[in-house]
């Protein structure tokens, strides 16, 4: 281990992993356990012959290997999922770099952690070139043990994650898995495939590609405490779409590279945006609200973090706001400024303003003071309604006389009737 080759390899890997290491934030439907678990499942997918043929042509045209392309594809997909520009993915390597080890019995397996930077303006081909360069460098320095690297990095990751990466990518060549090279090696023996379905997963996600004659097989092994089968099944289609589009559209950037299915596009663009609803065109919102008050007076109408109001309570409270506005300010077209947090009190205030026949200008309390003052000046509102988060006596942001600022809570006790409003 003191050889110059070992020292060179060590320097290479420490240079690759200098600085803060990224943590992949791939969202699932479950909360990540505080301590890493290894409960898992796997799902298999066979890519069509048409895509496999397209990939093989792409490899020849770009002087890259299948594994380089698949690694670049997985990283492009992870980038699309997370928008993270620094990605680390692991891959195993045989560890038989020296010719003397080729025919020896034993496990010489090593793990390579492949770190790649991704930019918004990268195309798939430019990302592939980066991946090719990083992989060739990793192969050249593969003799350095992964465990040694982890020890040197002195990482401080939570107990719920693996040391350096959470995703593994493997490529197996089916031809190399045959038992023997000659027919007589297996004479009288039938060799068949045995599918052992284990319920464990060493990493969050493990992509295992198998190259067959006319197709590519992908098995995704995943941690069931973090992800579910529905998400993994969509990954197959997303990966297939991404590779197809990346090959067909050479100049498109990763930022604009599409990977969604037609069904998902329709759901996002059509289903989720279909907010149309039928309602009586001859009635106002106040008319419709009063009908609900009559039908469900004790049902909850508005609910906040700590408080809630029934339809009856909401109706009575908004009547007080309406009475104050019409009693103090008459019936006019001047808009009322509303500077309140999003609480049930805000709904009471807005509904009361509508009952009074006035309009309102919503002002977000989170806005910068100068912006709040600008909105008030430009709107020329004669009245600002605030809430307890911004007491009227402590509101120097408002360029009005304090008599023109009222706390919404004060309006709830105002009982002067507002004739002709209801």
Task: Supply database-style keywords.
single chain; 422 residues; alpha/beta; four-stranded mixed β-sheet; 12 helices; 12 strands; elongated
Care to describe what's here?
The chain is of the alpha/beta class. 37% of the residues lie in helices and 15% in strands. It has twelve helices and twelve strands. The protein has helices spanning 4-16, 49-62, 66-82, 124-140, 146-153, 229-248, 262-271, 285-295, 311-329, 344-355, 369-379, 408-411; strands at residues 40-46, 86-93, 110-117, 167-173, 205-211, 216-223, 300-303, 308-310, 336-339, 360-362, 384-386, 405-407. The chain has a four-stranded mixed sheet, with helices on one face. Strands 10-9-11-12 form a four-stranded parallel sheet. Strand 7 and strand 8 (308-310) form a beta hairpin. Helix 9 crosses helix 10. The chain is elongated and about 100 Å long. The protein starts with a helix and ends in an 11-residue tail after the last helix. 23% of the residues are buried. Mean pLDDT is 85; it is low at 176-184, 391-397 and 418-422.
What is this structure, in a nutshell?
With 422 residues, the chain is α/β, with parallel strands linked by helices. The chain has 12 helices and 12 strands.
Architecture blueprint of SSEs:
Elements: H1 4-16, E1 40-46, H2 49-62, H3 66-82, E2 86-93, E3 110-117, H4 124-140, H5 146-153, E4 167-173, E5 205-211, E6 216-223, H6 229-248, H7 262-271, H8 285-295, E7 300-303, E8 308-310, H9 311-329, E9 336-339, H10 344-355, E10 360-362, H11 369-379, E11 384-386, E12 405-407, H12 408-411
Parallel strand pairs: 4-5, 9-10, 9-11, 11-12
Antiparallel strand pairs: 1-6, 2-3, 5-6, 7-8
Helix pairs in contact: 2-6, 3-4, 3-6, 9-10
């Amino acid at each position: 281990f003191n050889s110059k080759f070992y020292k060179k390899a060590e320097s290479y890997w420490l240079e690759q992993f200098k600085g803060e290491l990224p943590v992949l934030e791939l969202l699932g439907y479950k909360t990540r356990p505080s301590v890493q678990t290894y409960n898992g499942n796997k799902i298999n997918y066979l890519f069509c012959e048409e895509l496999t043929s397209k990939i093989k042509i792409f490899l020849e045209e770009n002087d890259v290997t299948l594994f380089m392309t698949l690694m670049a594809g997985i990283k492009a997909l992870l980038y699309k999922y997370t928008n993270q520009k620094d990605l680390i993915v692991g891959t195993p390597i045989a560890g038989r770099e020296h010719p003397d080890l080729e025919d020896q019995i034993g496990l010489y397996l090593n793990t390579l952690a492949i770190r790649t930077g991704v930019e918004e303006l990268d195309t798939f081909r430019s990302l592939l070139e980066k991946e090719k360069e990083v992989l060739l460098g990793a192969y050249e320095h593969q003799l350095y043990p992964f465990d040694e690297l982890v020890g040197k990095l002195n990482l401080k990751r939570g107990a719920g994650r693996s040391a350096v990466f959470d995703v593994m990518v493997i490529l197996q060549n089916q031809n190399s898995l045959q038992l023997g090279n000659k027919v007589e090696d297996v004479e009288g023996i039938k060799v068949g495939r045995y599918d052992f379905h284990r319920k464990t997963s060493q990493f969050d996600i493990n992509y295992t590609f198998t190259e067959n004659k006319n197709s590519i097989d992908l098995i995704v092994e995943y941690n069931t405490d973090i992800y579910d089968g529905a998400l993994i099944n969509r990954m197959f289609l997303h990966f297939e779409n991404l590779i197809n589009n990346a090959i067909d559209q050479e100049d498109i950037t990763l930022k604009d590279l599409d990977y969604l299915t037609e069904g998902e596009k329709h759901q996002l663009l059509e289903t989720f945006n279909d907010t149309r609803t039928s309602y009586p065109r001859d009635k106002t919102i106040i008319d419709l609200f009063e009908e609900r008050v009559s039908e469900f007076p004790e049902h909850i109408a508005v609910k906040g973090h700590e408080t809630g109001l029934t339809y009856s309570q909401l109706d009575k409270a908004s009547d007080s706001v309406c009475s104050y506005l019409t009693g103090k300010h008459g019936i006019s077209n001047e808009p009322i400024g509303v500077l309140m947090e999003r609480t049930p009190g805000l709904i009471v205030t807005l509904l009361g303003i509508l009952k009074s026949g006035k309009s309102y200008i919503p002002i977000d309390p989170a806005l910068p003071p100068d912006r709040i003052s600008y909105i008030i000046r430009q709107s020329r509102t004669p009245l600002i309604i605030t809430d307890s988060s911004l007491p009227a006596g402590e509101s120097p942001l408002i360029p009005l006389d304090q008599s023109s600022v009222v706390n919404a809570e004060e309006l709830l006790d105002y009982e002067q009737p507002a004739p002709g409003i209801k």
